[in-house]
Amino acid sequence: MTFARIAGTGGYLPERVVTNKDLEEMVDTTDDWIRDRSGIKRRHIAAKGEKTSDLAVVAAERAIEAAGMDVSEVDLIIVATSTPDKVFPSTACIVQRRLGLRKIPAFDVNAACSGFIYALDVANRFISTGGARNALVIGSETMSRILDWTDRSTCVLFGDGAGAVLLRASNEAGIISTHIHSDGEFEELLHVPAGISSGYDTVQQEAAFIHMKGNEVFRKAVSTLGNIARETLSGNNIKQEDLAWLVPHQANLRIITAAAKKLELSMDQVIVTVDEHANTSSASIPLALDVAIRDGRIKRGELLLFEAFGAGFTWGSALVRY
Ligand code: ACO
Which of 136, 151, 172 is at the close of a domain? Predict the structure, then answer.
């Protein structure tokens, strides 16, 4: 049997840091409110003209370098993003060109904040069925471009960044299981109303920004993440004490804390970057993973649980032996 193993990870955060104090100058908010309600202290924001593909390319190059591979060995690129450079071609094709690769399949996946888990699921299926041997799975977002910077209820919560994982075919697992779900019933609780077939050329400015019923999203996220964690553990016949680390989507420290509590995991076993990165949507899990691998917390052989929840609603998890 062929498995997908994480051979290397990479991350990239734009240079510009915007603190909560900076936001106090822009909207009616306070550093205390943002920290109390979300755990966020600062976020990185892409420079003018810096695009999702620019972030993705740097993260990808770092993942390839960490894997000790040559870029020419990559035979699949999947980019998870809700903030692509263009309507088409896909951001994955733009990244492919920038990496100097030709002919290999490259495509985007949009599952909002669960996008990385969805992309990982797809890449895992490619590798386990022999369709690819070295897959680049990237989460990259410029969330700042879909924020209304006058709306205090959303603009304080998001940031820009990219994370990448290079998956390599192996006899050892690797990605043990992935679990993905969605429920379109909740479309209006978290969405950017503008879109190509909804009158893109006549769009009202505010339709191009994130609209969110924060409270309702919060409640649904907490209960759903508890369920997906249970589904993953029981599906693999393992207990929470077998887990070394939880690497959750980084939306809100209170959601992460509640998820850890449901799993009876100490916060010492949870990778948290939301304080420094804010919510970078599909980039948040690979970014958090990369941070914790590079600082030595996550070690080879350890069992990891990734979990995410996002617009759609979409949600998912992956059980991974690093
Ligand atoms: N600064 C100060 N006050 C604010 C701010 C702000 N930035 N934003 C809202 N408020 C006010 C509200 O207007 C409200 O005032 P009111 O009581 O006078 O009406 C008050 O604070 C409380 O607002 P709530 O929305 O009830 O605050 P809550 O405790 O629910 O926290 C938050 C809001 C942080 C958005 C929370 O609901 C949350 O995190 N929800 C989940 C959001 C999320 O994670 N989304 C992404 C998940 S999926 C994905 O990643 C795409």
Answer: 172
Across the chain, where does the E strand assignment appear? 3-12, 16-19, 42-45, 76-80, 106-109, 134-142, 160-170, 175-182, 190-191, 211-212, 245-248, 303-310, 314-321
Cis peptide before 89 (omega within 30 of 0): yes
* Better-scored residue on pLDDT, 250 or 173: 250
Pair (216, 151) in one structural domain:
no
Best residue among 21, 32, 37 to mutate for probing ligand 1's pocket (most ligand atoms within 8 Å of CB) is 37
SS3 73: helix
Distance 11 CA to ligand 1 centre (A): 28
Domain with 59, as residue range(s), is 3-172
Condensed to tens digits (0 to 9), the pLDDT of residues 142-157 reads 999 999 999 999 999 9
Pocket test for ligand 1, best of 141, 216, 218 (most atoms within 8 A of CB): 218
Clarify whether residues 184 and 235 are in a common domain: yes
The residues annotated with a catalytic role in the active site are 113, 249, 279
Total tally of structural domains belonging to the chain:
2
On whether both 114 and 204 belong to a single domain, the answer is no
Q: Read off the pLDDT of each residue in 251-270 and give the average, rounded to a whole number.
A: 96
Q: In CATH, what number is assigned to the domain containing residue 157? A: 3.40.47.10
Residues 71 and 100: beta-carbon distance below 8 Å: yes
Q: Which atom of ligand 1 is nearest to the CA of 156?
A: 7
Q: Which of 172, 196, 221 is the last residue in one of the domains?
A: 172
Q: What confidence tens digit (pLDDT) does each residue in 169-183 have?
A: 999 999 999 999 999
Closest CA to 226 of 181, 264, 269, 262: 262
Q: Which 8-state DSSP code applies to residue 47? A: P
Using CA positions, which residue lies closest to atom 38 of ligand 1? 214
